[in-house]
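To fix ideas, we now present one chain and its tokenised fold:
***
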Amino acid sequence: MNRNGLLRLLFLSFLLLSGCWNRTELNELGITAATGFDKEGKEWVMSYQVIVPSVMAIGQGGAGSGGKSKPNVHVFTNKGASIREAADMSYMENARRLYFAHTDVLVLGIDAAKEGIDEVLDLYFRNNDARETVLVTITDGKASDILKKLIPAESLPGTALSEMIRKESAFSSRLPSIKVYQLAQRITSDSAAAGVPEIKFTGNIKGEMESLDDEKRTSAPGKLVLNRLGVFRGDRFIGWLNRRESFGVSWLTDQVKGSTIAFSSDSKSGKPNSIRITQAKTKVTPEKAGNRFKMRIEVKLSGALLEAGTNQDLMKPENIYKLEQDLAKEVTDIMNIGWKASKRIGVDLPGFADKIHRKYPKDWKKMKETWTEDFKKVELDVQVKAKILRPGLLKKAFRTNQEGSSKSGK
């Protein structure tokens, strides 16, 4: 092939190559860190916490006029007959295309949660620009109000909120985190139940904070906190569980990753002991008991003793064993509290229905229509094996050593 023929061939091949005709430049995107869902009548009210690139480029809390720092995010709200229509209304006041791939958390307003969140879940599973791994929270108010609050010392409130949820789930486990796909799985399971952590604003400020260092305060007058567990039956919110009740459900559902538990002993001191749980495993096995079912709950946990309230010598195995028994009783009580709360609110939060269905499919077929009442008759057989691996350096509580020194000094 001569040179001219080769050039013609190269030219024709270039025509077949696809170009970037539908590209979107970075400076045209509005990267969304958090999204809020509210309902007002029949309309959806959507709120977006969008990152402000110009402030982020300056640094955390870029300085504006007057020396005050500016928030790294901008929050705006739109209404629409559907969720997507409300999102499209954002272009009435926003010059950037909303980009949801970096959304860390979504907040459900209480009115939207009570009416039903099936449309929210449908949106996340139907569209490829929404991630189903986003963390879910609920608020006993408007989601838009939560998104307008800044979290001091953090540059991106939405990202900081998601980190709060993850850290609580990993180190406390009283309000375990839940993602969009997990929420969808649980409310469509045989139990048809799910728990969502509540985010609440506490403090004296009714409006949003305008800067991270307003008036150079060393502590913010208001803050966002994780408060309770919102309970869903199907796609609708039906009530709340407090932290201790939620902690019991976490044990029953094998969601305790790490936690610190204070428990009492029979020592005369009356002081509590504290243990840091480093490993925990819960196994739930359904067993038939006549026409009813009994759930055998087997828990194995281990951890390190952080505080000793007992006066006993902790170098003696029998005293450690007694503390382990006291700890096992405390965990058993916590699980029973969680189970009683589930029965009170009328929702199978521990997910016993799914386990019965797998082991006794024929029995489940007969009872699934009446499970909302039958599950309250289920009895628990709880067996907890606790192990204290590290009692610490002191043989006895420091208070006991100090009292011994005082007596010897006399």
The CA atoms of residues 261 and 344 lie 25 Å apart.
